[in-house]
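agent: user wants the structure for Zinc-ribbon domain-containing protein from Bradyrhizobium erythrophlei. delegating to structure tool.
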Amino acid sequence: MSCPFCQSDNASSVLVCATCGRDIAVPESLVLERDALLRKRDVLREALATATSELETWERRKKRPSS
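agent: tool returned. relaying tokens verbatim.
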């Protein structure tokens, strides 16, 4: 496991970095919360892309000369 603070390599089972002495263990609850937030982010990105596409379509139609 690479230390997020000093980037040194550590064994995957360690809780504290051997080089800088900082905590590198991540509680399972934080991992689960991060995963849930990443899923929500992806859903929001898709919704934003869809809304952007719809807005661009609407703006193109608005600029067309009427017959």
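agent: one observation worth passing along. Helices lie at 28-63.
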